[in-house]
Specification:
7-stranded mixed β-sheet
Length: about 350
């Protein structure tokens, strides 16, 4: 039996040297170390050997099997190297040609828009204030004049956590309360003015469509101080639109409703596709909505530590994805989250 194993190994190795491609290697493996090979038949027949022969034959059979498997692996590697060498020899390669340029990374279009927003408002004297993504129901709703069972809560379906009263914020507005309280704690009797923007991610449990996402960025703005009027709000936002879109862009304000501002307004810019004439982008209206705004509600001011009899302020909120969509005529907000390089490399 030991001689038979030597013979099996010798014949298998000789056949392996003749294999010249992947198909031949597969056929060799089936014939010499497969289930129906001569080597496997020896393993199967070991039960018929005497107790003295069985250990010797078993040890030898395992050695042969290991040797054949190692030889197959080495031959496979050898043929791959030969194929590479043949390919290189057959191709004309000019080593003096310059190498391929590395693809440079770039900022996400939303990030580009947010940085532009930061730059514009920084020139107006606004500072960036970062607030938390995980909020309490109190800060996200109640302190912003959303009492329990308020109908406006139905407009902002929330992601609730396992901790009662703890949610993912539906807007960046709760940062207004935290910022005002932080400022007013420095001098409760005479709190300093506030002029900040609050960027961040927001989350709403709603249907994902071409126009809405369950996760999106938002930039909130807040200015609180003495004698701040609606005229200051209009002047600030009109100047922003001219800096962001076009120096000659026309704007308009429409009355709206938000629980945390009174009066409230939405701001539109003249459609830059049709010049106000009406097209599919602006839905034949000639105008494009870009943000919501208003004068800070007296109750919100009081909840933030500012006396509404002394102080006034305005607030606004905009979506960088929406601004990017309008500026670059992107028709599906889901493109911002698909990580499709064909889309991202256009910016």
């Amino acid at each position: 039996m030991l001689k038979k194993l030597d013979k099996v190994q010798k014949e298998a190795l000789a056949a392996l040297d003749k294999a010249q491609d992947e198909l031949a290697l597969q056929q060799w493996g089936t014939l010499h170390i497969g289930r129906k090979s001569a080597l496997m038949e020896i393993f199967i027949g070991m039960g018929k050997l005497s107790e003295e022969e069985r250990p010797q034959v078993g040890r030898k059979a395992n050695e042969v099997k290991q040797a054949l498997e190692n030889a197959l692996e080495a031959r496979t590697f050898e043929l791959k190297q030969e194929a590479i060498k043949t390919s290189l020899e057959s191709e004309l390669l000019d080593v003096t040609l310059p190498g391929r340029d590395q693809t440079r990374g770039r900022l996400h279009p939303t990030t580009q828009t947010m940085r532009r927003i930061y730059s514009i408002f920084a020139e107006m004297g606004f500072q960036v204030y970062l607030s938390r993504d995980v909020e309490t129901d109190e800060h996200n709703f109640q302190l912003l004049n959303f009492p329990p069972h308020h109908p406006a809560r139905d407009m902002q379906d929330s992601f609730y956590t396992t901790n009662p009263g703890v949610i993912l914020r539906t807007h960046t507005s709760p940062g207004q309360i935290r910022a005002m309280r932080e400022y007013s704690e420095e001098n409760p009797e005479n709190p300093p003015p506030v002029r900040i923007i609050l960027p961040g991610m927001c989350y709403r449990y709603e249907q994902v469509t071409a126009r809405s996402e369950m996760q999106f960025t938002q930039v909130e703005g807040l200015a609180v101080g003495y004698n701040i009027t609606f005229g200051d709000l209009k002047g600030t936002l009109t100047d922003f639109a001219r800096r962001y879109f076009d120096p000659n862009v026309r704007t308009r304000f429409r009355a709206s409703y938000f629980p945390f501002t009174e009066p409230s307004a939405e701001m539109d810019v003249e459609c830059f596709v049709c010049g106000g004439g009406g097209c599919t982008v602006c839905k034949k209206t000639g105008w494009l909505e870009i943000l919501g705004s208003g004068m800070v509600h007296p109750m919100v001011l009081r909840n933030g530590g500012y006396d509404p009899e002394v102080y006034s302020g305005f607030a606004f909120g905009m979506g960088p994805e929406r601004l990017t969509m309008l500026r670059h005529r992107v028709d599906d907000i889901r493109n911002f989250w698909r990580n499709d390089l064909r889309f991202l490399e256009q910016f």
